[in-house]
């Protein structure tokens, strides 16, 4: 299968590319810069130059493929509404290109804030609708294309996709702990964060592509790691005291890290035969690479 992948050189995409290629797929990877193009080439994929802002590049990439895996997203929390508008435009461009073809359209979404305080499952609808919603309400927008003969698959990733080289939420928590001289959690620390190892997530993306169930899959290996346990592991790794703090302590990350957002992947594992096998979040923290990385 010829697969067009956006975010091909990103944190998740760079793990998905070798997974797809090893399974015999022909990959066309979107690359915005020369560095991204070099990374895509090194992975054994073909380069397609363009960006999320270049909608024509998304249309031509999608038109040239048997399937699309859309993993790119502007993680700009200083202009999150703008990032949502970009995402909505990208989903529209890809969806319109695939309409009437029966081809798979897999796209990155998330389990965060679906059902705060309760374990989210694949049956839970996404409450974020419309262009002003987080991520531009892109998941519900994408599913509108199922009525236009597109096999839409939402890849709902855990908020923490961890592993060596991670520069996401957990790396930010480590940075904040270094800055303040304490490793903190919000409230009593019982709120839960789902997590998945990057390599397990990449394997799931390939399985979801090959099955193309036309539904929702949860890239979640751990239903919910207590924030206190995360803060304790960071404190041990940095040799810092562990304490409770208000959400403001974490800056823009505060509302997320203070939320109780557990999620299950039981249905995904049963449907696709996916079994996470890589280290847990706490095992990755204990390995030390989060504390030695630049």
TrEMBL record:
CDD domains: SDR_a7
NAD-dependent epimerase/dehydratase domain residues: 3-211
Coiled coil: none
GO terms for MF: aldehyde dehydrogenase (NAD+) activity
GO CC annotation: cytoplasm
PANTHER family listed in its UniProt record: NAD(P)-BINDING DOMAIN-CONTAINING PROTEIN-RELATED, PROTEIN YEEZ
Name of the protein described by the UniProt record: Oxidoreductase
């Amino acid at each position: 299968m010829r697969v067009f992948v956006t975010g091909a050189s990103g944190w998740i995409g760079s793990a998905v590319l070798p997974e797809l290629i090893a399974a015999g797929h022909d990959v066309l990877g979107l690359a915005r810069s020369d560095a991204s193009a070099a990374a895509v080439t090194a992975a054994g994929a073909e380069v397609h130059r363009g960006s999320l802002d270049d909608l024509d590049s998304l249309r031509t990439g999608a038109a040239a493929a048997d399937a699309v895996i859309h993993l790119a997203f502007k993680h700009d929390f200083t202009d999150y509404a703008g990032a949502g508008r970009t995402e909505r435009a990208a989903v529209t461009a890809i969806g319109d290109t695939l309409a009437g073809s029966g081809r798979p359209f897999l796209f990155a979404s998330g389990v965060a804030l679906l059902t705060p305080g309760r374990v989210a499952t694949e049956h839970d609808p996404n409450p974020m609708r419309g262009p002003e919603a987080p991520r531009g309400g892109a998941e519900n927008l994408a599913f509108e294309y199922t009525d236009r003969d597109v096999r839409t698959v939402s890849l709902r990733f855990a908020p923490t996709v961890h592993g060596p080289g991670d520069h996401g939420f957990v790396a930010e928590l480590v940075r904040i702990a270094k800055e303040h001289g304490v490793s903190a959690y919000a409230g009593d620390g019982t709120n839960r964060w789902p997590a998945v190892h990057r390599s397990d997530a990449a394997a799931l993306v390939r399985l979801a592509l090959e099955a193309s169930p036309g539904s929702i899959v949860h890239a979640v290996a751990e239903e919910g790691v207590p924030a206190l346990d995360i803060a304790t592991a960071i404190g041990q790794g940095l040799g810092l005291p562990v304490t409770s703090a208000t959400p403001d302590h974490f800056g823009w990350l505060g509302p997320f890290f203070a939320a109780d957002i557990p999620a299950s992947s039981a249905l995904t594992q049963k449907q696709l035969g996916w079994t996470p096998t890589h280290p847990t979040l706490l095992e990755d923290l204990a390995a030390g690479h989060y504390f030695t990385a630049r």
